[in-house]
Amino acid sequence: MSISSETLHKHLKEIFGFNSFKGKQEQIIQNLLEEKDSMVIMPTGGGKSMCFQLPALISDGLAIVISPLEFVDENVLPSNLKLSTLRIVATALLPIVTPSTVPPSIPTESTTNVSM
Length: 116
Fold this sequence. Notes:
Layout: H1 5-16, H2 25-33, H3 48-58, E1 96-97, E2 114-115
Antiparallel strand pairs: 1-2
């Protein structure tokens, strides 16, 4: 799906209320919309969420995001939006590491009460 920069900015403003993209967000989103495989590494606060939320909302089909985060922080959205309003379903698979699940080669003292 190819989309003009103007149309992409229109969706950004209508859905999220933002006037401009942050850093390389627009380029990343364009790559995703063109169905190019993408691995995006950005620092905290770099705008990763927008890179998967906007393409998922304006495209047909299913978006699957794999993230090392333990939860999806709804605080990254404007106050009038919630994931459910945007038709985004978020779930997490969180195995809990306990001394009994740690391989014997790793000392258990340093892994007690650690979640992944």
